[in-house]
Amino acid sequence: MSAVFECKNLHKAYGNKKILKGIDLTLHRESIIGFGGDNGSGKSTLLSILAGVERPDSGKVLLEGQNIFKISGLSERIGYVPQTDPLPPELKTSEILKLWCGSKESYDRTVEEYELKSILKKKTGILSGGMKRRLSFACAASKFPTVMILDEPTAGLDMHFRELIRGDIGKMARSGTAIILVSHDIEDLGMCNKCYRIVNGINEDF
User: 66-92: per-residue pLDDT in tens?
Assistant: First the structure.
């Protein structure tokens, strides 16, 4: 099976501090890869590079053989949910979804699939942490991305929303999306086909 997503020999430093020193990763459709381990090891930095938000100092990130930094409309092919939900607090849920979904068909499907009808008229600033996280997930998933990247997807959520998000992750993987997640939760990592940790800037089996 050919890889859908790869990174090769990624390096990243901030000033004199080297964070990533040669990360290699291969991901296939329907697979879930997890990263656990110590805070400050470079996990979130790695995810931001894989999502195309930051550029590495050297190395390659390839989506279906293409350099991600040369792909237009990358957010339609790579869904990214960072650790802090990037939802403008002054906008209503319906407004956020319309910005992301792009079509009425996609909007209606996303509202139904993620059970968001009850909060459509609410501003995102007043939503619970769990609902914000699920809305962020729904927005990133709305265009059926090839790869989904999740940074601490269930952190700080109650049991109800943790289970909902894990169900969403499993459903996406079964539909063919490749998923990369960072988590300190053993149940999140238990969903993964393979887990790594970053030690001295290199990924090794967890």
Answer: 999 999 999 899 999 998 877 999 999
